[in-house]
Structure formats: C-alpha cells, structure tokens
Design a protein that fits this description.
The chain has one domain: TIM Barrel (Alpha-Beta Barrel). 36% of the residues lie in helices and 11% in strands. It is built from 17 helices and 13 strands. The strands form three sheets. Strands 3-4-6-7-8-11-12-13 form an eight-stranded parallel beta barrel. The protein has a two-stranded antiparallel sheet with strand order 1-2. It starts with 11 loop residues before the first helix and ends with a helix. It binds flavin mononucleotide. Flavin mononucleotide (FMN) binds next to α13 and α15.
Length: 480
C-alpha cells in the first residue's frame, strides 16, 4: 500500500492535514517553544522534580557479554541516553531477573556468578557522565532499571525456550506451542517473583531511583495479566492475574525502602498478525467462531480491536498500590510489530504495514489520552512517537501541552538521534540526517543474531562488520 511518510511533508500544515485525516481529534503544535514550552516544564513525583517531559524508553542492544554484563556497545548506549537531555530514563534496557528468562543471549541478567552490582553501577555512571557532558545537573534526572522475565519469549541461547504462564490458542498457534506444553507452576512463578526482588535490591543499592516491573510486549508479567485460562491462584479472575505482580511490588517495598516502582504495560493488545503469503502484507491470523477470551486489553468479540475496560481497572489498581509512574505501550514486537513500533519498513520477521503506520501512532496517542483522562493523578509516559519523524516534537508539544500525557517516550529516535530532546529544548534546528526513518534495521539485526543499533544512521554501527552482514541478509531477502 502507498502512504506518505511524515518526513515527506514539507510544512506543518501539510503534516497536520495528514494527521487529522487519520483522526480529527489529533493535532500538533504549529511552532516549537523549546524549554519555555510544555516539553521544558518540570514535573514532580513525591519530593523529586523531573526536569523536563522527555523520557528515554528502555532500548536493549542484544550486546551484553556471555555472562550477562554490559559490553562497550552497551555502555556507549547508556551514555548516550544520559547525554540526550531527557530527564526521565525509563529503565535503560530490559534486565532479566534470571538466566533462563532472558529474551536473547546478549541480554543483561542477574547472574549470581558475576559482579552484577558493579555492572549496574557502571551503567548508571554512564548515564550521569553523559548527562554532565552536556552541562546538565543530575538533581532533576530520574533513572530507573527495567526488570523482566521473558516468559513465552525466553530465548537464553540460540533457540526459544518458552516459559508460559498460560495457554493462548492464537499465540500458541503462531509460535508452534502444543496444547499440552507445560505451564509454569505456581511455585516457579513465586521463585521468579523472588528474583525480581533480588534484582530490585541490587538496583536500589547502586542508586537507581526506581525499578520498572515490566508488564508489556508479551513477556511474563504481561502474559499473566491476560492468563484467563490459567487454573489456580495466579490465573482466571483479575485479582488472581495481578497477584504475582502485587506480591513482587510488596516484597520490593519491604526490601528496598525508598525505591520507587514504575510499570511499563502493554495497555491494549490485539490478536497476532502474520504476513499474507501472497502479498507479504500483515493481517490478523484467522480466528473464527467463539469469543477470544484471552490476553489483556483485547476485545473478545473482535480481537483485532482493543477493550480498555480491564486495562483501566489495572490503572486503578496501580493507583491504589501507590504506583504513579506508568509507561504505556501497546501489543508486542513478536506478534503485532506494526502496532508496537509503527514503521514504514518491516523488520525481517515482520510484514508489510497493513495500513498507514500513522494510524498506529494514532492508536498510541488516543489510548494514552483515554488513560490520562481516566487517571489524571498517574504520571504517564507515551510510546510509539518515532514514526512521526520530523514532526515528532510538534506532536509531543501538543500532547503534553494539552495534558493528554505527562512524558513523551523516545525509542528508536534515541538510537539514530540521541540528542533529539536536547536540540528541541534548546531551540536548535532539527538535524534531519539523524531522524529515524524506521528502516527497522535495529530489529532485523538482532532477529538474525547480531547486535542491535542504528546501522543506517549511526556511523559507529556502519563501521562494524555486522553492517556488511546485515546488508547481505537484506539483499538475500529482497531476492526471495
Ligand atoms: C532495538 C529495540 C530495543 C528495544 N528494547 C526494549 C526494551 O529493552 N524494553 C522495552 O520495554 N522496550 C524495548 N523496545 C521498545 C521501545 O522501547 C519502544 O516501545 C518502541 O521502539 C516504540 O517506540 P518508538 O516509536 O519511539 O521507537 C525496543 C525497541 C527496539 C527497536
């Protein structure tokens, strides 16, 4: 399908017309107001002030050492998070709480046989040094660590080694999981919960100010939220599906006084998509017949659309638990990448966009607005902004200014153009050559066993042998 990418619009008016053709409720600022405007306004949480409204999303690089420690690539990435000028560093990257819960062999993890505390200390140090490099003070910078167990998408070595919380016939079908595949026992879930607490303790000792008990993208805690068919105390009704999460939160609080807790959650979801074998375009997998009573935030009667009823209940549950920081994502990069990270060009395990990717950005914006309207007291970080390209800051300024969201999270843009927040806030012109054009190489490379990074635009990755390897893989795919 043909669509105009945001970067092709030469004026803000032309971009706005495109945006509003998707949904008239959407809008963008006509001009940017830098640090004086909404994006430069501080925000308080407890007695902490966060200096501006940019957040850096967790962005892993598949580049840790075999022992789960940061490599030079990892340290460089964290330094660049710090020098971005964003005052909220949401998690750095997914840090697995145990070895078999890693999503890839290059993921950082709680390795009891390695100096993980020293590694976390170095990572945090990189953030602060990067921040100091651009002349920023650390007082109004908030840094957290994202804790994860990859659950169904665990792949600690070369092969997937799923650890599932419950069966989901659509996901089982897409990923070849037999109906009698064993689910994690209650005891195994509780042991995993204890590792979350152990990892949080290290983060707290090192000086991270919050941990993210990650519940997004199809990983374990997210799968549990939707484990309606799981029997026993951790499945079925909402109270059960949130029990492990609550237990982890309570235990972290008891063990790490003063450590804040945040949650990155896939607040809405859809049935898995797959490439049409003839056209390569993404389409929902075939689902006929009875209501789809699986997952979290999926409409059972039409599983290609969202149902926000339970997600809003979950946000109320977070508020009642005293959790204020929530980072909203949608879906999963494994089964609906067009929605989780809208892109013009699909990754190698993806499919051609089923529609204008701007419509998927709109889903993020509108769902976030609905959550903020329902829970103005929560501090919400929005996702899915990178595809906006040259107009990202204009949309960000509008959304924050209208109080539809508290922080604008940056994912892929951080890899191609790490100083984006600093440039926007200091009123510098946009460096167009740094703007992420969503080629998806940062996802294609790791899907093919290589480290991630912005191969098209970051000269550091262009100079690596992996760059040549990636071009060969892409050429071979085009010939298919
Ligand atoms: C290379 C890469 C690494 C990512 N790593 C993580 C991660 O560690 N944890 C996480 O929650 N999301 C991760 N994400 C998802 C991003 O944080 C973000 O949600 C997504 O890219 C959409 O935001 P964007 O449009 O600004 O890129 C990753 C995405 C990419 C492309």
């Amino acid at each position: 399908m043909k669509f105009t990418s945001p970067g092709q619009h030469k004026s803000v008016e032309a971009f706005r017309a495109h945006l509003q053709s998707i949904d008239p409720k959407l809008d963008c600022a006509s001009e940017l107001s830098g640090a004086e405007g909404p994006l430069g306004a501080p925000c308080t949480i407890g007695d902490k002030t966060i200096g501006n409204r940019f957040a850096i999303h967790p962005m892993e690089g598949w580049d840790g050492t075999a022992r789960g420690l940061p490599s030079d690539h990892t340290l460089r990435r964290w330094r660049r998070f710090g020098s971005s000028g964003a005052k909220l560093i949401w998690g750095g990257e997914a840090f697995a709480v145990q070895e078999d819960g890693r999503a890839n062999a290059g993921q950082l993890y709680l390795n009891p046989r390695a100096d993980v505390k020293g590694a976390l200390d170095r990572l945090l140090g990189e953030i602060f040094e990067g921040h100091a490099e651009i002349g920023e003070k650390p007082d109004d910078l908030l840094v957290g660590l994202q804790l994860t167990h990859s659950g169904r998408f665990s792949r600690p070595g070369h092969l997937f080694k799923p650890r599932i919380a419950g069966h989901n016939p659509a996901l089982d079908k897409k990923f070849g999981i037999p109906a009698d595949f064993p689910i994690l026992t209650d005891g195994e879930l509780e042991a995993i919960g204890e590792n979350y607490v152990a990892a949080a303790k290290l983060a707290w000792q090192v000086g991270f100010e919050f941990v993210d008990v990650k519940a997004c993208h199809g990983y374990l805690m997210h799968e549990l939220l939707g484990a309606k068919s799981r029997p026993g105390p951790y499945g079925g009704r909402f109270e059960n599906r949130t029990k492990l999460f609550r237990r982890v939160v309570d235990d972290i609080r008891a063990t790490c006084p003063g450590l804040s807790i945040g949650v990155r959650v896939s607040i809405a979801d859809v049935i898995p998509f797959t490439a049409n074998p003839r056209t390569g375009v993404g389409e929902p997998i075939e689902w006929k017949g009875e209501p789809f009573d699986h997952g979290f935030g999926i409409d059972a009667d039409d599983p290609t659309t969202f149902d926000l009823e339970e997600p809003l209940t979950f946000l109320g549950f977070l508020r009642d638990l005293g959790i204020e920081l929530v980072n909203l994502s949608i879906g999963s990069p494994y089964y609906c990448p067009h929605l989780q990270r809208p892109a013009a060009y699909p990754p190698s395990d993806g499919y051609l966009p089923p529609h204008d990717p701007l419509a998927d950005v709109a889903e993020h914006l509108l769902v976030t607005r609905a959550c903020k309207a329902a829970f103005p007291e929560l501090l919400l970080v929005g996702s899915g902004y990178t595809y906006l390209q040259d107009w990202l800051a204009h949309v960000a300024e509008y959304e924050v200014g209208a109080k539809h969201v508290d922080f604008v999270g940056l994912g892929r843009m951080t890899l191609s153009y790490p100083s984006f927040p600093h440039d926007v806030l200091s009123g510098k012109p946009l460096q167009r050559k740094g703007v992420c054009r969503t080629f998806s190489d940062c996802t294609t490379a790791p899907r093919n066993g290589m480290i991630s990074g912005c191969y098209p635009l970051d000269v550091y990755y262009r100079a690596l042998p992996e760059y040549v390897q990636l071009q060969d893989i892409k050429k071979a795919r085009r010939r298919q």
